[in-house]
Specification:
Two copies of one chain form a homodimer.
Chain A (H helix, E strand, L loop, with lengths): L16 H9 L4 H9 L5 H8 L3 H13 L3 E5 L7 E5 L1 H4 L2 H16 L6 E4 L11 E2 L5 E2 L4 E4 L1 H8 L2
Chain B binds a DNA duplex through helix 3 and helix 4.
Chain lengths: ~160, ~160
Amino acid sequence: MGKLTEPLGDIGDDECGLPCALQAMGERWSFMILRASFNGLKHFEEMQSNLGIARNILANRLGRLVESEILERQPCADDRRKIEYKLTKKGEALLPAMIALRQWGEQWGIGVPSNPVLCDERDRQPVQAIRVHAHDGRPLDWHDLLWVDQSEVVAEAAE
Amino acid sequence: MGKLTEPLGDIGDDECGLPCALQAMGERWSFMILRASFNGLKHFEEMQSNLGIARNILANRLGRLVESEILERQPCADDRRKIEYKLTKKGEALLPAMIALRQWGEQWGIGVPSNPVLCDERDRQPVQAIRVHAHDGRPLDWHDLLWVDQSEVVAEAAE
DNA sequence: CGCTTTAAGTTGCGAATCACTACCTAATCG
DNA sequence: CGATTAGGTAGTGATTCGCAACTTAAAGCG
């Protein structure tokens, strides 16, 4: 069979970032734990009671997220019983993916934008829907996308 | 509500779109199958050999994606043995979330942009990194975000 | 100090899910 | 007709999930 253009890369190999991302985030609770982190939850008990996740699964996922350097694990200074889990830069970088998923769930699952609404703190206006944008800012859909070999991209860019 | 196929358990509150999205996409293979669909794979055997997924799991996930109206299942016109699985609008709407995850994997997992590169077909330039944008287009980070009650948002928007 | 509480896990166990192989069914080809 | 192909289902073990109970270690307190 002929090689068709593959908008998301090859399966199973390491050329695509998606399997790599799923390695860290592909499990059921990972996104919910990450959302809790984005919402400011820092401690084990806090997350456990908030998410209703089993304790061993939470421990396991937190360990994996720390191992993936998405969360950072550090004992609390004031109360050394407590452990603080905080987002790393790598973890923060998952925000667009999270928001995109959330917006999709709002639009196609729930049907209406959920409350409360995610806003820019500067003017308290809702954020834009997350989209794929061309380098010049045009919003793109699936059918506008194309896979280009890196060498050709560089050549194009240098013109 | 009866027990429809809900192997994901109850993941959380309904005021957030993320649990809702995870209900449909929270399993490990779902994203890979969806990527295959975006890549133009339409048939069972095609996906099975390409993904290397167990046949029963693939059948199960395809069924669930169809049930979630992310994929559409229709018999092929020319060869009635074949079934075509194609993306619905709802499925296509997952593209930004997928690209965002992929880009994250590229940047933080692999370390370098993978080859080939996802480009705009108009000018063959790489697409922008997916980000959260304010309504006026400013790119936003985690710390720029704020949860605002819907009523307040409307009030602000009307000013 | 000794007792209690709290935070963050770990362990055991039954249920559910995963993945691998083999088998089945219906339509099409020759 | 028999052979082939697409799209599954069935059986089987390994793994993971989730609940509850237990452990450890650090505070809090009289």
